[in-house]
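re: ur question from earlier - yeah i can do the single chain one, its not a big deal. heres the input i used so u can compare w yours
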Amino acid sequence: MNKLLLLLLISSLLLYACSSAKKHHAQLPGYELVQHWPQLPDGYQLSQVTGVGIDKAQHVFLFHRTGRRWTEPFPDSMISVNTILMLDRQTGKILNSWGANHFVMPHGLTVDKDDNVWVTDVALHQVFKFTHDGQLLMTLGQPRQPGTDSAHFNLPTDVAVAKDGSFYVSDGYGNSRVVKFSAAGKYLFDWGTKGDQPGQLNTPHGIDLDAGGNVYVADRENNRIQKFDANGTFISLWKNDRAEQLYSLTLNKAKNQVFAADYLTELKLKPLGSDIIRLDTSLQFISRFGRSGQYEGPISRYHDIAVDNEGNIYVGDILNNNIRKFAKR
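and the output i got, formated as tokens:
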């Protein structure tokens, strides 16, 4: 090969590499981990952060297990200290806390459009609705009594609240179903059986609604997201091909986007970490980051996810007992 041909070949390869780099850069998700967030009081230690939500003022709510991890059998005693924290989204400082002597094994948390706070407790098999500052408004399910009927849950995981106040419960580890209730807490209907076919569920672990009232379920052990209409009719699904489990999801209604978090291990022993995945509401893939790239931070296990009105992402990390914030660049 003469020198001219060699130079032409090298130039072509360099142009292709630059083009590919620009294309790759354009596909970067545009988020960065916020260092030194949250700013907690000296000596204060979070436990497993299992639920995350955002209120109307864009404060960040978190639900954590305060000195506990999931153990079986579950403990007998209530957690005697506060389990629900309200954080300033800019600084991560604690603005309020409550929830002592209410819970045994915290799980999901949702803040509705009226700033009510909904949580689930898997040990109690119950769903609770509180005011913004922690006054109990509603309790569903029988304490410590799992069941499959309209009055019982079996390890319920999460809640999604519709515009009219009716709500859906992902129920959960034991029943693999979704249950809908009226705003007053009256049972309406449920759907889902355990399995891996479209419309079936295997540990519905997270749930949210889009602006049109369609229901999105993080079908954890099937490692996918399923979309249903408000009556539970299956619409579509997205199967995750890069992990073992898909833990949680949330809807950014203003952008018509779905944000989800997965988790991967090696032989179910060695943690490999989580990805944050972005889809549109038709469940078409947009981007992902975390374990698979574009992320400098610790190996994490994201249990729940929330997005504020600026597009910043918050995830509860149950591997490192923390909540992490990814700022939109």
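Confidence is low (pLDDT under 50) at residues 4-27. not sure if urs matches, ping me
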